[in-house]
Specification:
elongated; binds magnesium ion; binds 4-amino-1,4-dioxobutan-2-aminium adenosine-5'-monophosphate; alpha+beta; eight-stranded mixed beta sheet; BirA Bifunctional Protein, domain 2; 2 domains; OB fold (Dihydrolipoamide Acetyltransferase, E2P); five-stranded mixed beta barrel; 454 residues
Length: 454
C-alpha cells in the first residue's frame, strides 16, 4: 500500500493533494458540532498529524467510537493548510480504515508515564515521544558513524561475537556453551572444544585488519558480565572501535575529538526537534552543552588529573591518588572543573590492560580516556604496544598465556607498525546527546543484572 510519512506531510509539500497516511492514534477528541479530531503518529517525527472527520467520512466498519488511543488506522483524505496554531497542515478524512483496535487496557492511555513504568513495557514504549525520539537519534548516529569513517577511507569490519580471547583482561565475560548444566561438564566435549565467551571488545581482531589494511572500524555489540547496577553500565551494549595503523596517541586523540564533535553537530542539524524536546523535558542545559562541544577539548595527563582531584574541595567516595583508577565521580569533577570535555592520557600501567604501549618512564602507558560532562568516560583507547619483547613481558606480568595469543603477537613478529585505536560506547554517546539519565532508556532492549526479557 502506498502511503505518505507524516514527516513529509507536515513539511507542507503535499498540501492540496489527496493522500493516504497510516499510524497509531495518540488521542481522539469529539466536538459537539459533530467533528472528531484524531492525533496520529507514525514514528517518522515527533509531531502528530491532525485528522479531522465529519459525518461525510466513510469507515470500513463500525464508527469513530472504535478509533481509540493506541489503535492503528490508515486514512485517506485531503491535505489542507491548517487554520489551527502549531501545525502546517491537517487531513480532512474521506475514508478511515481501522487496521487494529486497542481496548481500554492499552497501557499508554495517559501521557507522562514514569521511565521506570515504561521499562516494564519495553515492547510498547517506542510509541511514546521520548522513545521514538531516541530511536531516531540512534538511527541518525549509526548512519553518521558509517558516513564519517567511510568518508575517511576506513574499512568496516565485522569482528566475532563468540571469542576465545579476553581483550580487557578483566574476566567479566559471559561463557558460551551448548551443553546442559551439570557436574559432568567438560570443555573437551563442549561445542568448540575450548572455552568460549561473548566478546567484550573487537579490538584484538580489529588490530589484525589494521595491520594489513591501514584504517578499519568495527561497530557492534559487546558483552560484559560485570555486576554493575549503575545508570551507565549494560551487560550488552554497542561499541564503535576504530583501529588505525601508523597512528600514534596524538593522532588517536585528534580523531576521537573530531568524531565526537562531528556526531554532535550532525544530531543538532538532523534532529533539531528531538534535541529541543529533550532539552525542554529532561535537561535544560542539553542544547547548550551540545553546542559547546565545538570548543577544543581540554587535554591533561593522568598525573595532572590526580593533582587536580587531590586539591579538590570535595568529599569523594573513592579517595584519588596516583595509581588508582578514575571513578565516575572523579570524571564528572574533571569535566566540571574544566567546564567541558576532557581527554586524560598517560595512565599508570597498573590500571590499564596489557596491550597499551609502555612509556619511557616505565610507569605509564599511552592510554587515553575521553570524558564528557554529565556522563564521564565515553571513549577509552590507546596506542598499542608494537614492540614484541615489551609486549610479551607485559603479558607475562598480567598473567596472560602468551601461546594462546600467538596470533596477536605474530602481528609484532612480522612487519610490526605503530598503531592506535579506541572504543566509543554507543549508548553513552546517546545518553550524552539526549540527556537521558539512565543507560537502560537509550537501548531498545536493555540487558543488565537480573534482566534479559524480550
Ligand atoms: O574502555 P573500554 O573498556 O575499552 C575497550 O574495550 C577497548 N578495547 C576499546 C579499544 O581501544 N578498541 O570500553 C570502551 C567504551 C567505554 O569508554 C564506555 O563508553 C563503553 O565502551 N563501555 C560500556 N558501555 C555500556 N556498558 C558497559 N558495561 C560498558 N563498558 C564499557
Ligand atoms: Mg575504559
Amino acid at each position: 500500500m502506498q502511503y505518505k510519512k507524516i514527516k513529509d506531510i507536515l513539511n507542507g509539500q503535499l498540501t492540496g493533494n489527496i493522500i493516504t497516511c497510516a499510524g497509531w492514534v495518540r488521542t481522539r477528541r469529539d466536538s459537539k458540532a459533530g467533528f472528531s479530531f484524531i492525533e496520529l503518529n507514525d514514528g517518522s517525527c515527533l509531531k502528530n498529524l491532525q485528522i479531522i472527520t465529519d459525518s461525510q467520512t466513510e469507515y470500513n466498519k463500525n464508527s469513530i467510537k472504535d478509533i481509540t488511543t493506541g489503535s492503528a488506522v490508515w486514512v485517506t483524505g485531503m491535505c489542507e493548510k491548517s487554520p489551527g496554531q502549531g501545525q502546517a497542515c491537517e487531513i480532512k478524512a474521506q475514508k478511515i480504515f481501522l487496521l487494529g483496535s486497542a481496548g481500554s487496557d492499552y497501557p499508554l492511555q495517559k501521557k507522562n508515564h514514569t521511565l521506570e513504568f515504561l521499562r516494564e513495557i519495553t515492547h510498547l514504549r517506542t510509541r511514546t515521544n521520548t522513545f521514538s525520539s531516541i530511536a531516531r537519534i540512534r538511527n541518525l548516529l549509526a548512519f553518521e558513524i558509517h558516513q564519517y569513517f567511510q568518508n575517511k577511507g576506513f574499512l568496516y569490519l565485522q569482528t566475532p561475537i563468540i571469542t576465545a580471547s579476553d581483550c580487557e583482561g578483566a574476566g567479566a565475560m559471559f561463557r558460551v556453551s551448548s551443553l546442559p548444566f551439570g557436574s559432568d561438564y567438560s570443555v573437551q566435549n563442549d561445542f568448540f572444544g575450548q572455552e568460549a565467551f561473548l566478546t567484550v571488545s573487537g579490538q584484538l581482531e580489529a588490530e589484525t585488519w589494521a595491520c594489513a589494511l591501514g584504517q578499519v572500524y568495527t561497530f557492534g555489540p559487546a558483552f560484559r558480565a560485570e555486576n554493575s547496577n549503575t545508570p551507565r553500565h549494560l551487560a550488552e551494549f554497542w561499541m564503535l572501535e576504530p583501529e588505525m595503523a601508523f597512528y600514534e596517541l596524538e593522532d588517536n586523540m585528534n580523531l576521537a575529538e573530531d568524531l565526537v564533535k562531528t556526531l554532535c553537530r550532525a544530531v543538532l542539524a538532523g534532529a533539531p526537534d528531538e534535541i529541543a524536546f529533550f532539552t525542554e523535558r529532561y535537561d535544560k542545559t542539553l542544547f547548550e552543552s551540545l553546542n559547546k562541544i565545538s570548543m577544543p577539548f581540554c587535554r591533561i595527563s593522568y598525573t595532572e588529573a590526580i593533582n587536580i582531584l587531590e586539591k579538590a574541595d570535595e568529599n569523594f567516595e573513592f579517595k584519588p591518588g596516583w595509581g588508582t583508577e578514575l571513578h565516575t565521580e572523579h570524571e564528572k569533577y574533571l569535566t566540571a572543573h574544566t567546564a567541558g570535555p576532557v581527554i586524560v592520557f598517560d595512565f599508570p600501567a597498573s590500571v590499564k590492560p596489557f596491550y597499551m604501549r609502555c612509556s619511557e618512564d616505565g610507569k605509564t602507558v599511552r592510554a587515553m580516556d575521553v570524558l564528557l560532562p554529565r556522563i564521564g568516560e565515553i571513549i577509552g583507547g590507546s596506542q598499542r604496544e608494537e614492540r614484541l619483547e615489551i609486549l610479551l613481558a607485559r603479558m607475562q606480568e598480567c598473567g596472560i598465556n602468551t601461546e594462546h595469543y600467538r596470533w596477536y603477537t605474530d602481528l609484532r613478529r612480522y612487519g610490526t607498525v605503530p598503531h592506535s585505536g579506541f572504543g566509543l560506547g554507543f549508548e553513552r554517546l546517546v545518553q550524552f546527546i539526549t540527556g537521558m539519565q539512565n543507560i537502560r532508556d537509550v537501548i531498545p532492549f536493555p540487558r543488565h543484572p537480573g534482566r534479559a526479557g524480550f
